[in-house]
Design brief:
binds magnesium ion, Rossmann fold, 11 helices, alpha/beta, six-stranded mixed beta sheet, 292 residues, globular, 6 strands, binds adenosine-5'-triphosphate, single chain
Length: 292
């Protein structure tokens, strides 16, 4: 298992994106070197998920945020392959509907929180409301009383997120937050690949190129969001994303370690329940004897 402290931000006070390299691979050279490790992590995740489901008290909320083409979709596909689909739910949050805009900003994601015993994955999340909405100044579309939009608006909203995540943790819903940290050069390569490769054309959208013009603004608001919402109970993980094999390794490692840290156990039976099981066994055995 990797040492995760370098990637985990528990106190955002001095956080700077520039201190994190998008092409970092923790001195691992290539994907050959990690053959088998991701599979191992996935089997740990599957084992632990089974216990999480049986125990039915904690829920894991995996949040994935990133610039376009950082690999959110393929990460979800690869890392989640071994999990039981019954216990996992993925939600993708796109531009809000007019119904969603008529509510407070946490409404639509709150409705989609994982039930106890489940692993919920948010492909984008309520963080969009301090990222894209901030970069493009989209508050006009929201029905927020104008008087409430003052110079502290974004700091207040980030405070609300921090408090909300504390509330989640205190209710047994545990956020695990990933920022896939991609370099601007690698994004360009991936866009070109989407243009050049016919099987990837469908992934390309002209609006991605427009968003790329706002790269620096996005980096700034991401940095501020991570700075203000990294806490010991809901840390951000900065995942170097230029090498997809490394981001998959790291994310699978973090989720496996997180689940293991909960020391999950299958529920044990009470004496009364054990008597019930013995009774059931007897009924089944008698059935067999009568059949003979
Ligand atoms: P992909 O491009 O890989 O299919 P995606 O997550 O980028 O996945 P898109 O449909 O391209 O999906 O984009 C969704 C868009 O919705 C993003 O540009 C995102 O910023 C935007 N969005 C998400 N939440 C909000 C929000 N609360 N307010 C405004 N825009 C939002
Ligand atoms: Mg997109």
């Amino acid at each position: 298992m990797l040492s995760l402290s370098k990637y985990r931000i528990e106190d955002g006070k001095n956080f700077r994106l520039a201190d994190h390299k998008p092409d970092d691979t923790a001195h691992l050279e290539d994907k050959k070197q990690i053959a088998g490790i991701i599979e191992e992590n996935i089997s740990i995740m599957a084992e632990e998920q089974d216990k999480l489901y049986a125990q039915n008290d904690y829920a894991l909320l995996i949040i994935i945020q990133a610039m376009d083409a950082a690999g959110k979709d393929s990460l979800i596909k690869h890392v989640m392959t071994g999990l039981n689909p019954q216990g996992t739910l993925v939600h993708s949050f796109k531009q809000p509907s007019s119904e969603e805009l008529d509510h407070d900003f946490l409404w639509r994601t709150h409705k989609s929180l994982p039930e106890r015993g489940r692993i919920g994955i948010f492909n984008r999340s309520y963080y969009e409301d301090v990222l894209v909405v901030r970069v493009h100044n989209l508050l006009d579309r929201h029905q927020i009383p104008r008087k409430l939009i003052d110079g502290n608006f974004w700091n207040n909203r980030l405070d609300q997120i921090r408090n909300y995540e504390y509330y989640l943790v205190q209710n047994g819903i545990l956020p695990v937050k990933f920022f896939l940290h991609l370099s601007k050069e690698e994004q360009k390569e991936r866009f070109l690949e989407r243009i050049d490769n016919p099987s990837k054309n469908w992934k390309f959208s002209l609006s991605d190129i427009q968003e790329r013009q706002y790269w620096d603004d996005y980096q700034k608001v991401y940095e501020d969001a991570i700075r203000q919402t990294s806490t010991p109970h809901a840390p951000w993980y900065i995942i170097p994303a230029d090498k997809k094999w490394f981001s998959r390794l790291l994310v699978s490692d973090i989720i496996a370690q997180k689940l293991q840290s909960l020391q999950l156990e299958y529920p044990s039976m009470t004496d009364e329940q054990k008597v019930g099981l013995e009774k059931a066994r007897k009924i089944l055995m008698d059935e067999k004897n009568n059949d003979k």
